[in-house]
Amino acid sequence: MTPRKRRPGTISSEELAYKVSELALSKKAENIHILDVRKQTNITDFFLICSGSTDVHVNAILDGILEGTDHVVRPWHVEGREALRWVLIDYVDVVVHIFQQEARDYYELERLWADADLEVVGDG
Predict the structure, then answer these.
(1) Quick one: which of 29, 32, 53, 124 has the most CB atoms within 10 Å?
(2) CA–CA separation, 2 and 15 (whole Å)
(3) Which residues, 6+ apart, have CB-to-CB distance to 15 below 8 Å?
């Protein structure tokens, strides 16, 4: 797969994935996983999956990520803010999934993308 070209001064998808993981960790997100899906699909480069314990916690993680990336890149799309069970932030090359644990257990995205390279961030 051909790597995507990026504009000068912009952040790479890998840098963005790690930046988002740091922001999620700073908001005490749990079970932060970075999946490198570049070999499996061309729809995105990375999935970042993490969990929050309550809707308030999920919202705090969401706000922390949006505020922390605002000067670098803006998301193309954000959905799930109303229910806060599964929030998706689509940066195109990086897609962030913030779950409440019950929803994460139900959808098991890591299992769907089991062939992707997985990195656990923080305590896992």
Answers:
(1) 29
(2) 18
(3) none
